[in-house]
Structures are given as structure tokens and as C-alpha cells.
Amino acid sequence: MHHIEMGAIVKANDATDGLTRLEEAQRIVLEATPTLGLEKVSILDALGRVLGEDIVAERDNPPWNNSAMDGFAVRWEDIKQEHAIEKPVTLKVIEDVPAGKMPTKSVGPGQAIRIMTGAPIPQGADTVLKVEDTEHTPDSVRVFKPEPRGSNIRPQGEDVKKGECIIAKGTQIRPGDAGMLAILAKSFVFVYQRPRVAILSTGDELADLDERFSEEKIINSNSYGIAAAVQEAGGIPFLLGIARDTPEALKEKMSHGLTADVLVLSGGVSMGDYDFTKAVFRELGAEMNFWKLAIRPGQPLAFGKIQGKLAFGLPGNPVSSMVTFEQLVRPAILKMNGHRTYGRPLVQAVIQEKFSKRTDRRHFLRGVLTREDGVFKVRTTGAQGSGILTSMVKANCLIDIPVEVERVNPGDLVTVQLLSGEAWKTQAEHTHSTGHKTSCC
Ligand SMILES: Nc1nc2c(c(=O)[nH]1)N[C@H]1C(S)=C(S)[C@@H](COP(=O)(O)OP(=O)(O)OC[C@H]3O[C@@H](n4cnc5c(N)ncnc54)[C@H](O)[C@@H]3O)O[C@H]1N2
Ligand code: MOO
Does the keyword Metal-binding apply (predicted)? Predict the structure, then answer.
């Protein structure tokens, strides 16, 4: 296993002449992207959202010393016998404190209070004995096992101390945080607003799912793939349908889309006779960046701010639209909804096959990452054409092959961007569960 050997296979000159590097495009997009304001939501609605305030504890948790075991609260002085089996101590049981009740008595010399897990420790007691280490009647308890002083007591504030910042602004709320918000009696919290993202597909060849469509039409799938990706990134998608290939139709639909925070178009950004995206962006007053990006798939891409809103013109090829969304739109949505980091988790993995390319573009291969004997391994999903959407269906990661790299060989270490949070499977499990290479449907 070794890192991709750069020396032998990297060309001396930057071969991306005329092409914009993805890193530069990402910088421009993120600089133009605002973080949205705050809104107040209930605990469960906060799940997955980014916290817009520091959560400071207004009381200790636990609020009082309490028992970690079902048993007897005692004074340690009373039970520190020399030989517990031969000389067990007998204490008088003066009260029974179930969870949810406060003790009313204090434990004096020779006394014990029966106590349940979570119940407050009575005055006078400093140690709890587990019920199974005793013999007991309703009125008395015989102690056969000495315990160190303080055993089985959970001290007040061991979890949370009043005045401490417990969950910091900028945290994405997970289930543990939701539980903590409840402990701290925060029924409602401030989170960052989610951007509304208008999605528009362009092209006379397209028909929507609910239309009758003839043989020359293809189904508008990009709107759904992009809408799902928006949702996954924490945005709120709404579909504007299809704009026909005229500047007027495009302009009208785009104007409607500008009521949202972000407008994402797909198609019509390349060199075709009916590719009007660029012109209409300009007409609507966009401060425009039209890029030929140094990536594959996803070379042609328009980005601009129109009337203060972010507008992206993604390439129409289905895989290209998804990959460019991943690299440029997703980070913008994450920034808008309050995230502080915008990338997918990265893993270094050993590639299982060879791949070669020119050194003018960074490639994002759709990959399957598995874990064998503690080592991450990755292979491509197969054919990588930008119209082959099954490459996204099969993928759980994108294999990132840098611009400068001309060739990777089996055994090389590559960086992959994780698309799925699923537990890692072995190759055999993956093949079995996805049906790839087996008969499925
Ligand atoms: N002369 C050139 N032609 C092309 C170039 C180029 O540089 N010079 N670039 C190629 C590359 S790379 C890409 S990517 C595409 C991008 O083109 P457009 O953004 O203009 O996309 P369209 O031409 O409208 O469509 C391309 C392809 O994708 C299908 N498509 C489009 N929209 C959808 C949708 N909503 N759902 C499903 N499929 C969609 C469309 O039918 C085409 O097959 O341009 C190359 N050409
Ligand atoms: O950039 Mo296109 O996306 O190569 O097919």
C-alpha cells in the first residue's frame, strides 16, 4: 500500500489552462454565501439542525446526590466491620425512599434507609449498599460486605454544573443533545433557518413525471435527485418544474425561483444552440461566474448572485448535476443553515483497480468503500459516464483523484468522500445486500 506516486506521473505545468480549479470556485461560492438568521423550534424539530445559541445549564444535573443502586443508604462509620462475614453489622431500617420521593428522615448511628436507584441520598448517609450484599427484613438490614466510603452515590452536578456551557452554538443537534436539552428544561431553542432552494430543470427534451410523454422525451430526473440532495443537506427544496428552451420561459421560471434563498438550475449551461442559462443569468442582473471547471464530471457551471440570491446553473447530465451539487451547492447550503464545516467526511482507502486520466481535471469517481480486516478498500462502481446514474445508485463514496494525478494503480492510497453514513460492510456483505453482481429485481 502506498500513496499515489506524484513524481513520476505529474506533469510539470499546470494543465488546467482555461479551466477553473474547484477549490477556487468553492472559495468564491462560500464567500458569496451568507449564514441565515435564527428561528426558535421545539426539541424534536431541532434534531439535525444547527444550534444558534450557547446552551448554559441553569441548574445542576443530577440536582442532588442520589443512589446509583437499589439498596440501603448508611453511615460508612457503621459498616466498616473488621470481618463482615463473621461479624455482620445489623442496622435499623427507618424509612423507605423510592425514586420520586424525598427522604424525610436523616440516618443516625446504627440506622439505614432503604433506597431505590435515582432516589435522593438522605441526610446523614454517605454510602449505599447494594441490596444483594445484605440480608434484610422490613425493619432491619444485615451487612455482609463493607464498601468504601461514598460507594454507589452519584454526586450532585456530576453530569452538568449550573452555569456551564453544555452545548455550544454551531453544534448540529443529535439525539444525545435532544436528551440534554430536555434535562436542562429547554423546550425550545434557537437554530439556524434552513434555506429554501428552488429547483428548475431546463430542456425541451424533458417531461415531468405527471405528464404524458412521448418517445422523444426523457423524464426530468435531475429535479428529484437535486431536491433529495437539498433535503439531505438540510435545505427546503421546491420544484419549479421544467423551463422550455427559450430565454423567455427560462427567465419567467427563474424570476419565480428568486423568491427562494437559492436557485438551482440544471441543463443548458454548455455550448448548445439552446443553452440560454448564461444569457438569462446576465439579463436578470447576475454578477456572474461562468466556469469551465477543472473537474470531471461537471465541467460547465454557472454561478452568480441575482438580486442577492445564490443562483447555480449545473450541467444537465444527471451525474454531473449531482457531483457539482456535492462539491459546490451542498457546502453553500450547509453554510446557510449554520454549519461551520462544509465537507463530507474523508477516508483514505486502498484502491482496488487501475485508473488513468489526463492531468487537466480533478476526477470524482463513484466508488464503493468497504472494510476488510480493518482496512478501507475502494473500487469504482463500474462505467463512469456522466449519463450513467446507476453509478450514483451503487456508490457510497466519491473517489477524489487530484488534477495532477495521471494514473492510480491497485494498492495506491486515495482519498474518498463519504456519501453514506451506513456501517462499513465487507466486500462480500456489500455484494450480497445490494444485489450488485447478483440477480436483483
Ligand atoms: N460542444 C460542447 N458540448 C458539450 C460540452 C462542451 O464543452 N462543448 N460539454 C459537455 C458536458 S461535459 C456536459 S456536462 C453537458 C452539459 O450540458 P448542459 O448543461 O447544457 O445540459 P443539456 O445539454 O441540457 O443536457 C445534457 C444531458 O443531460 C440530460 N438532461 C438534462 N436535464 C435533465 C434532467 N432534468 N433530467 C434528466 N436528464 C437531463 C439531457 O437530456 C442531455 O442528455 O454538455 C456537454 N456538451
Ligand atoms: O462535465 Mo460533463 O459533466 O463531463 O459530462
Answer: yes
